[in-house]
Backbone:
């Protein structure tokens, strides 16, 4: 089709083909290792730390996030790096040092299973069902968005893209389970860097380097804190309090510390130190990611001045593909498209593996068939992979009919984790939090988020970003208050039942025998120092 | 036990990048395609070589220590 943005030639398709063949080979190679449910859902807890770290990071590197962050760099300038700094690093370090000992140490297989041990069956059920529904819908939304973007970029029909991606993900996840998903996420991580770095280099060359770029942009596009004393002082329309409490505390901790999609990667690590280091090591490449997203987004302000909020061909979200079309000749274009396809598919694979685990362990085993053999659960894992993908395809087609639904769902899921984080925080650090306190805290926090979303007028907050930050904050706050009140009036668990689940009742882990570069506290401190230095540099 | 080399991530990353890198390098040498915005820069040749070198680096990591004992 003439309308497409990219015009790939034979060699580009050959490169894409090489990648597809490898993805499937990895899945097939792993088949022999998937003997038990533990292998399939948790990779047998055997993966080295550097691999789980990169997978932890890549699970959050879907192509939609990439395109969205480039678009945000175009719209808001350098303030977008908050999503990579305060919106990620403190939470990732906290997860590794303080929370992972409970997740990994208690040998739970999923986030809801922790809730069952710490609180009760009702809390687990509520979280498992809402997470399963959300993940499978998210997977459908990404599938739809991918098809839409491929249609604009390559002129492929949406049905072709949806079916092709779904079948490939089905093959490698269905056969190789979580390990296959993790392996592909790591391969994707390197493909993204190799495939997108030339965009940053070439666009910086054209705008006169990093300093040249900052000189040519408005003042409030080149500082991350300076304009945040008031919401009006910066392009994002949020003040520093909104950034710190909303993004930095609630949204970021909620996502990074309780979202099973990412936490599952750390749970697959081979030992406690590797599990703890998973998110801490991942924080270093996370701080480098803006090089691939925010920087080209800002350069695009000068290089592609005509972008706006509307039509897909000139939409902000198209900033990255349009830069690619501008600079990548045949050959390199194949690599660039492969990088995007890889990140689309591994995003979907991540959702599917998380869904499969929660469905099999926390819904099927918990409520439908309690006493089946391990072999049966492994079989159920494979079946639910197929079913999960079929539901995703169905969702993709529904969203195709009602495109506005995508915005609603993305916004709603954006602060879904905030109340869950409240429940985890109290659960892990306050031994008096009672089982029903946890349940009512989670329920009322989630309802608060929903009510704020449905009933506040659209223009109540100055910008969409500010709305997300503050809604997340209030949902978190409601969950904390309700949980504390209910806990004071309901029966608490005995201390003996909470060993290994709550801080203070659990033996401290000693890492004395490890060299310094494998100690979570040392690595975490280095990450925080780099994080603070970057904030000062970009102030 | 027979070891399947595709189980080792270093092999997978190494092979994918080396093969893709070589394909791009060859494209750069044979047809040196270009774009207006590149002012004659043969980016395929340059980045093809970079990609191949990174790929070979991962294969080298494997060859140095095939059994992954850390």
Residues:
């Amino acid at each position: 089709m003439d309308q497409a943005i990219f015009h790939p030639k034979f060699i580009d398709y050959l490169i894409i083909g090489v990648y597809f063949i490898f993805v499937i080979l990895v899945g097939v190679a792993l088949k022999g290792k998937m003997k038990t449910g533990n292998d399939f859902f948790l990779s047998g807890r055997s993966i080295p730390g550097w691999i789980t770290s990169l997978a932890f990071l890549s699970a959050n590197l879907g192509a939609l996030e990439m395109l969205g962050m480039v678009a945000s760099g175009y719209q808001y300038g350098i303030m977008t790096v908050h999503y990579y700094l305060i919106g990620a690093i403190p939470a990732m370090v906290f997860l590794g040092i303080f929370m992972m000992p409970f997740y990994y140490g208690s040998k739970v297989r999923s986030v809801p299973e922790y809730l069952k041990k710490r609180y009760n069956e009702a809390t687990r059920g509520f979280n498992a069902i809402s997470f399963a529904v959300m993940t499978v819908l998210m997977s459908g939304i990404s599938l739809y968005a991918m098809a839409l973007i491929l249609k604009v970029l390559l002129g492929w029909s949406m049905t072709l893209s949806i079916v092709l991606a779904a079948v490939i993900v089905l093959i490698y996840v269905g056969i190789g389970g979580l390990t296959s998903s993790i392996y592909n996420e790591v391969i994707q991580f390197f493909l993204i860097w190799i495939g997108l770095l030339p965009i940053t280099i070439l666009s910086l060359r054209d705008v006169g380097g990093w300093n040249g770029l900052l000189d040519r942009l408005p003042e409030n596009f080149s500082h991350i804190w300076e304009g945040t004393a008031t919401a009006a002082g910066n392009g994002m329309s949020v003040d520093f309090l909104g950034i710190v409490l909303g993004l930095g505390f609630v949204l970021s901790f909620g996502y990074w510390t309780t979202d099973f999609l990412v936490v599952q990667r750390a749970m697959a690590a081979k030992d406690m130190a590797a599990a703890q280091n998973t998110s801490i090591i991942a924080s270093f490449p996370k701080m480098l990611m803006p090089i691939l997203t925010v920087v080209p987004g800002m350069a695009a302000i000068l290089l592609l001045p005509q972008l706006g909020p509307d039509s897909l061909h000139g939409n902000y979200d198209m900033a990255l593909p349009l830069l690619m079309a501008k600079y990548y000749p045949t050959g390199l274009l194949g690599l660039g498209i492969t990088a995007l396809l890889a990140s689309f598919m591994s995003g979907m694979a991540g959702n599917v593996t998380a869904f499969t685990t929660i469905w099999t362990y926390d819904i099927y085993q918990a409520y439908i068939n309690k006493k089946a053999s391990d072999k049966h659960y492994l079989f159920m894992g494979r079946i639910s992979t197929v079913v999960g993908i079929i539901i995703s395809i169905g969702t993709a087609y529904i969203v195709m009919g009602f495109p506005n639904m995508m915005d609603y769902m993305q916004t709603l899921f954006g602060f879904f984790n905030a109340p869950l984080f409240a429940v985890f925080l109290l659960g892990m650090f306050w031994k008096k939090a009672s089982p029903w306190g946890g349940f009512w805290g989670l329920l009322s926090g989630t309802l608060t988020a929903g009510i704020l979303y449905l009933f506040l007028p659209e223009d109540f907050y100055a910008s969409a970003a500010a709305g997300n930050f503050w809604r997340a904050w209030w949902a978190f706050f409601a969950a904390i208050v309700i949980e504390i009140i209910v806990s004071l009036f309901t029966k608490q668990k005995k201390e003996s039942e909470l060993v290994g689940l709550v801080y203070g009742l659990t033996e401290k882990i000693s890492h004395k025998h490890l060299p310094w570069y494998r100690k979570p506290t040392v690595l975490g401190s280095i990450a925080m120092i780099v994080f603070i230095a970057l904030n000062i540099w970009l102030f | 036990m027979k070891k399947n080399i595709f189980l080792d991530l270093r092999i997978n990353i190494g092979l994918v990048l080396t093969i893709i890198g070589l394909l791009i390098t060859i494209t750069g040498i044979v047809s040196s395609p270009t774009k207006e915005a590149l002012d004659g820069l043969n980016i395929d040749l340059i980045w093809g070589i970079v990609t191949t070198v990174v790929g070979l680096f991962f294969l080298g990591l494997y060859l140095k220590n095939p059994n992954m004992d850390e």
Summary: Chain B has one domain: 5-64. The interface with chain A takes residues 4, 6-7, 9, 12-13, 15-17, 19-20, 23-24, 27-28, 31, 33-35, 37-38, 43-44, 47-48, 50-51, 54, 68, 70 of chain B (CB under 8 Å).
